[in-house]
Amino acid sequence: MAIKIKRTGHLVLRVKDLERSKKFFTEVLGFPLVGDNGRGMLFFSPDVDANHHLLAIRQAKEGAAMPDPEQVGMEHVAYELGSFADLQEAYRIFKENNVKLHHVVFHGITKSIYFYDPDGNLLEVYCNVPPEVYRQTVANPYGLYGDIRDELDGKVPQKPGTVAP
Asked: Which helix (H) or strand (E) holds 55?
């Protein structure tokens, strides 16, 4: 019999500069700070009733190496947003705050923005595309179907068969 996991509960990141990361996660990503263990670890959650903490950060030891995107380990963590308008707002905020982007893409199942936190960890924010919509245009809902910067900027409307609510 296999373990029956309900959901991913939280992510804990070691960070170079606790205050810099606190500012990034609260001011750029909008995560409310919900706890501090008093020993260099901070806790964040957008809804403490649903999840006591979605993210925690802790101060890394002095001289700790930065993440290496080529080594084995976690590649990225993704945060679901409620709508395409929320994704557009995230894109605007990232640009205003000079957040380094990895790429923005229509996957089929999602429209996504991949970006880096101040320590170089790859993160993602996304909104879901309903199956009845993406099935009109893509054979593989987990593929990569092009850059969506113009849609995020509002320069063009969302393309038919890719429309996220």
From this structure: strand 55-59
Rounded to a whole number of angstroms, the CA Rg of the chain reads 17
Give pLDDT, residue 20: 97
Tokens 């996660």 correspond to what residue? 25
Question: pTM for the full model?
Answer: 0.92
Tell me the CA distances in angstroms from 38 to 4, 19, 34, 35, 160, one per residue in order.
33, 14, 13, 9, 51
> Mean pLDDT for the chain?
94
Note the pLDDT of residue 37.
95
Residue 118 CB neighbours (<10 A): 16
**What CATH architecture does domain 76-153 belong to?**
Roll (3.10)
Q: Does domain 11-59 have CATH number 3.10.180.10?
A: yes
